[in-house]
Amino acid sequence: DASAPTNVMASPLSGQVGIRVSWTAPTLPTGLSITGYSIQHKIKGMSMTNVEVTVGAGTTQRDITGLQNSTQYRIRVATRTGLGTGQYCCDNPNQVFVTTSE
Asked: What is the C-alpha to C-alpha distance for residues 27 and 92, in angstroms, rounded to an integer?
């Protein structure tokens, strides 16, 4: 099972309704390599859905647009390896929230 990314942060994008999510790649056990990341976002207070963005292995930042303005979102990021998607970061008590701009 792959470790979750660390140092996950999110900030509103300037000039558009969206967010920038960034993270630090985890250290994996010998023999495993990162194939990408899955990023989930949801409106705070709603059930976590499969609104997911997938990015490649060398990426540690992603902009997500097309969101609702002035809305608080919860963010989670997971590492993907040849074995599948690992554990998502940022569950209780370390949830990551960001509010989009107007």
From this structure: 22
> Cα(66)–Cα(83) distance, rounded to whole angstroms?
31
Among 97, 33, 41, 38, CA closest to 65:
41
- Residue bearing tokens 């107007």: 102
Helices (H) and strands (E) in the chain, counts: 0, 8
Q: What is the pLDDT along the chain (102 residues), one digit of tens a residue?
A: 678 999 999 999 988 899 999 999 998 888 889 999 999 999 988 876 667 888 999 999 999 999 999 999 999 999 999 999 999 998 878 899 999 988
- Residue 80, strand partner residues: 36, 85
Report the 10 Å Cβ neighbour count for 98. Answer: 22
Query: What is the distance between the alpha carbons of residues 22 and 31, in angstroms, rounded to a whole number?
Result: 25
The pTM of the full predicted model, rounded to 2 decimals, is: 0.89
What are the tokens at 84?
């599948």
